Amino acid sequence: MGLSKKDILDIESLSAEEIRLILETADSFKEVLGRDIKKVPTLRGKTVINLFFEASTRTRTSFEIAAKRLSADTINISASASSVQKGETLSDTVRNIEAMNSDVIIIRHPASGAPHFIAKRLKASVINAGDGSHEHPSQALLDMQTIKEKKGRIEGLKVAIIGDIAHSRVARSNIQGLTKMGAKVVLYGPKTLIPKGIDEIVGAHCNTPLQVAESMEEALSDADVIMMLRIQLERQGVSLIPSVREYSRFFGLNSKNISLAKGDAIIMHPGPMNRGVEISSEVADGSRSVILDQVNNGIAVRMALLYLLAGGHKDA
Amino acid sequence: MEKKGHILDTKGIHRALIRVAHEILEKNRGSEGLALVGIRTGGVFLAQRIAGIISEIEKSEVPVGIVDITLYRDDLTIGTNQPVIRGTEIPFKMDGEKIVIVDDVLYTGRTVRAAIDAVMEFGRPMMIQLAVLIDRGHRELPIRADYVGKNVSTSRRESVNVSLVEKDGVDEVTVTEIS
User: Fold this and answer.
1) A105 lies in a domain?
2) Is A169 a catalytic residue?
3) How many domains would you assign to chain A?
4) Exposure string for A22-42, b = 16+ CB within 10 A, e = fewer
5) Based on the domain organization, do A289 and A149 belong to the same domain?
6) Per annotation, catalytic residue among A6, A20, A58, A116
7) Residue B83: its chain A contacts at CB < 8 A?
8) Is position A58 annotated as part of the catalytic site?
9) How many CB pairs under 8 A join A and B?
10) Are residues A63 and A176 in the same domain?
11) Co-location of A148 and A184 in the same domain
């Protein structure tokens, strides 16, 4: 059985079964990445385009390394140095890129839904590498891979997601994925940054309810996984938090309040971190932090996505 | 699919593997520097069985690795269904070793070609040999087996099925007509 999808646009449209397949495939690629020769010939002759309309180091580099490890040719296009500057529409840009025989287009765009828009217009596969404040599926998959690796399972774990939920596509993707996989997700953050009705975004498909905590204590107590989100200063239109110092005091993770969580709880952060704001340096660099494991797993997970989209033919 | 005939049963498979194990030891003058690599899925169990027989004869363990050739297939881009990857495990050093690749059926030779590529990624073995339970002919590449359990003449319209206790609950080799 393969993945019968042309695109990976969001976690919402993936089933628990498909998520499991992606994570298991990623396990195999982790083995490849542990070899002396970290390259396999699987996607020889395929072309993977990284089309980034927003800044990124981690995600773009990770996708590029993943494609290169699979022997695909990769090209990076950043919007600031492309014809987008001359007023070309998104639709025209991607159709021109497809006309150059590209097989997979990885897109990051500030507008929510942009990857869905182009996926409908292209025969090539599209992977969403983050669209506005909607979703960032590959990040959620690598987070789930890291949790599975460190905890041996996802089901039944308490995962606290803390911070700027409103602007976070990482939170949205993780909420979808983790509830599908049976984790108990608890959200916490300033009231202004928790969208009303967020607990309803996971519909009938989810196996576990989504909960919004009233305090840091409630969010952290007995947590198996603590996922801190970056306070997205660039997306704050009006002032939604009083000050960075106050945010840090009430919503930041530090060596004191971490003791509320389980003794073996792991600390995650999708990066880039604002050290001393949402997470203290002590915690970020501490023994329970798996932040760099997340980055490491990112390559294996993205290899799995590329293989499942571009390797072999689909059943249907 | 119509069953055309039984080629081997439990005893037949066991006898063939005992002979193959002896031939491996004879050709390599013992089990020193020897390692087996089974091709997923059938080849893995056969490699483990051969290793078991060798250790009984020689009173020393022979390492067994597993190779998943999916990532090295030459047909990923031309119309096959997408195979699920199950992972490669090579728990020993390849450099300077005598590697015996083990598979259930040798047919076109394309799987073995992919397995050789996969094995070479782990180092530089002194030599690579090939052991198969069934050689059914119809090679598409210049590849031959060093050790063969049984040669079976087949037509391309037939399929050779190797069932093993470890994965199918029964030991048997049958030939069926593909309808």
Assistant:
1) yes
2) no
3) 2
4) bbbbbbbbbebbeeeeeebbb
5) yes
6) A58
7) 2, 312
8) yes
9) 59
10) no
11) yes
Please tell me whether residues A85 and A106 are part of one structural domain. yes
A270, two tokens:
């999708």
Residue A269 among the catalytic residues: no
Task: Report yes or no on A111 lying in a domain.
Answer: yes
DSSP state of B57: H
**Token pair recorded at residue A135:** 């979703």
| Range of the structural domain that residue A209 is part of | 137-294
Place of tokens 């593997």: B17
Give A34-62 pLDDT, tens digit per residue.
888 899 999 999 999 999 999 888 999 99
Identify whether residues A44 and A56 lie together within a single domain: yes
Name the helix (H) or strand (E) containing A153.
Answer: none
Q: Which of A204, A288, A21 is nearest to B83 (CA)?
A: A21
pTM of the model: 0.86
Among A181, A64, A60, smallest CA distance to A173 is for A181
Over the stretch B127-167, which tens digit does the pLDDT of each residue have? 999 999 999 999 999 999 999 999 999 999 999 999 999 99
Residue A7 lies inside a defined structural domain of this protein: no
Same structural domain for residues A145 and A70? no
| Residue A279 token pair | 């997470």
Do residues A151 and A265 both lie within one domain?
Answer: yes
- Convert B37-72 to b/e letters by CB count within 10 Å (16 or more is b): bbbbebbbbbbebbbebbeeeeeeebebbbbbbbbb
Check which CATH number belongs to the domain holding A285 and give it.
Answer: 3.40.50.1370
Q: Are residues A158 and A287 in the same domain?
A: yes
Sign for the pseudo-dihedral over CA of A303, A305, A306, A311: positive
Q: Is B83 on the interface with A (CB under 8 A)?
A: yes
State the complex-level ipTM.
0.72
Whats the size of chain B, residue-wise? 179
**Taking a C-beta distance cutoff of 8 angstroms, is the pair A43, A280 a contact?**
no
Give me the torsion for CA of A34, A40, A43, A47, rounded to 10°: 70
